[in-house]
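Recall from the previous lesson that a structure prediction takes nothing but the amino acid sequence as input. Here we apply that procedure to Inactive serine/threonine-protein kinase scy1 from Actinidia chinensis var. chinensis. The sequence below is the only information supplied.
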Amino acid sequence: MFKFLKGVVAGSGSGPNNLPYNIGDPYPSAWGSWTHHRGTSKDDGTPVSIFSLSGSNANDGHLAAGRNGVKRLRTVRHPNILSFLHSTEAETFDGSATKVTIYIVTEPVMPLSEKIKELGLEGTQRDEYYAWGLHRIAKAVSFLNNDCKLVHGSVSLASVVVTQTLDWKLHAFDVLSEFDGNNEASTGPMLQYEWLVGSQYKPTELLKSDWATIRKSPPWAIDSWGLGCLIYELFSGMKLSKTEELRNTASIPKSLLPDYQRLLSSMPSRRLNSSKLVENSEYFQNKLVDTIHFMEILNLKDSVEKDTFFRKLPNLAEQLPRQIVLKKLLPLLASSLEFGSAAAPALTALLKMGSWLSSEEFSTKVLPTIVKLFASNDRAIRVGLLQHIDQYGESLSAQVVDEQVYSHVATGFSDTSAFLRELTLKSMLVLAPKLSQRTISGSLLKYLSKLQVDEEPAIRTNTTILLGNIGSYLNEGTRKRVLINAFTVRALRDTFSPARGAGVMALCATSSYYDVTEIATRILPNIVVLTIDPDSDVRSKAFQAVDQFLQIVKQYHDKTNSGDTTGAASGGIPSGNALLGWAMSSLTLKGKPSEQTPVASANAVAPLTPALSNASSVTDSPSTMPVRVSSSDDIANQPAPVSPTSTDGWGELDNGLHEGHESEKDGWDDIESLEEPKPSPSLANIQAAQKRPVSQPKPQVSNLQPKNTAKITKNEDDDLWGSIAAPAPKSTSKPLNVKTSGTVDDDDPWAAIAAPAPTTRAKPLSAGRGRGTKPAASKLGAQRINRTSSSGM
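The prediction returns the following tokens.
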């Protein structure tokens, strides 16, 4: 009784209940007397494989061989040998009978015979996969025989398992033993548990137990024969039942047949060494084996080899077995990119392979690597991420974009490379909807404020288009303070005609955000003057915009007359989303080639598509203006605008994040940073009309200052719009950009929302850069005259 209780206590402490793994369903097949179970870790649910072997008592021969297998598997480590995790032995009692069970826990694997049925490969893809698997097993056998001087003794289809990444691995080490060929005088068995091996798998000398011959043979003789048996079972699709079946070579590939015959040579000394099989066999020279081998030794390759390989990989991946690409190549590629061993072109291959995954798998296998790559300092990697952001941007969560991705992407706004600034700008169309209001108002809009006066006209144009497209993601206060200033003060006055056209289209696309007063006093006056723009496309856009905004004003008028003032400001206006879609599509239409000549040049590079609309134009009618322009006949002699030194967006953004930059220049109100060349007479007239303050009609004041009156009269004489221009400002009005703090100029429509501009002492203006009616005695002019006079003297 005491012995029974002792046995129960001893068994319960080490039994399966104490095993830190859950035992699941068994597979239909396994090697020898073992049972192969699926399993999971009790800690984190990680999948594992659990092998169990039971015997009637502790001295059972199968259990002794099993203990040998556990010991060998624990101590022998190789990439192509099954990875050992844990083992235990438990005793259980059923009445008077004792049952002993050995458990081995390994990485999650599946019997090769079951995996072959699951994959269902055929033809060339099947042969390539078999070649890769045999290559792995041959290397494992070579390691045991040549490096460790061990004999596996039972190589067959049953002794091979497949991992989750479809790697073939060797296991079943119960028979494994040292090769004692130096002890030729010994007559005892070299393989203590060779009786576990079926007779059909034994070579002649082992079948006869001729240990003297075995010891005189090379260490690989027995296992080379086993490799031959594995090859037969693999290609015939049948389990070997008797040795004579090995003579049937009909299913063996012709390129492998000579090596197969040498592996099964009747003379042990003439059998092919598995290392020679790996090195010299023609069968292993195929695309799949070469591709995986290159990826595994990537760190040993130089930059030229890497670049060449990764540029070919996207096309090569389409020719390889899809399951192997997704389960083997994709993890290798993601790992090499994450740790910096892969070149930038590898990103294209990663995204292409990722497109073959389901959305759930893409989020777990590819997205984590992409998010980590945003922190890379490699400019080529950053360019690749931005170029392909449309392929994965929708899969990024708002939290990941706002907290992990945006801060790295935003560095591209200030990059010295115009191409990278352009790509960063385009990426915002995908990322901006996922940003918080704090990030948009506190960071993004400040970057866009700088980009709207970028030296590249294409970037200025696309910035305007982007603002029109993301207007719906801004809060109401920010929209009121940013959009009109961005479109009228900067975009409509840009020297680059596509930028002016983009400003008109952006105003139309965001028309639902403006009230009637803003339309009548700030938008229409600025658009009307563009109806005589030198560029025909800008003119056509201006006419369309005038019609659209006049219709809004007419609707307001009709509702006011009928006494219905509810929704009068925006009544009858399509939704913002509808206008946004129309604005984007209108920017993609092609135009007449004859009108493209003035902008394009021989040195111009690839067009910059506005707002990621996959277009090469920023126009919606007759003419097409390439947006990515590096040089042009129209702007060849015009100095590029200089980016402002201010970092505070378009005026004070109403987001509660005032950063105390009152002394800095307002990004929207100040357009003096644009170093515009002297425009053509017609464009100068338009700009002069744009710069004239718009005010409500008031009684004329007779006591105007004489000098200002003369200046205004002269301007009206030269101004084509003199007959219909707004009345001259009152004498009490101050010149533009000379506003005193704490006061609001009634004649300046931007005064209420714009930050105070610096005085001329803070930043002297260049000649001809004034806006609106200039003071008669210009201090700047006088200084220049004095310098000229002094130099003359």
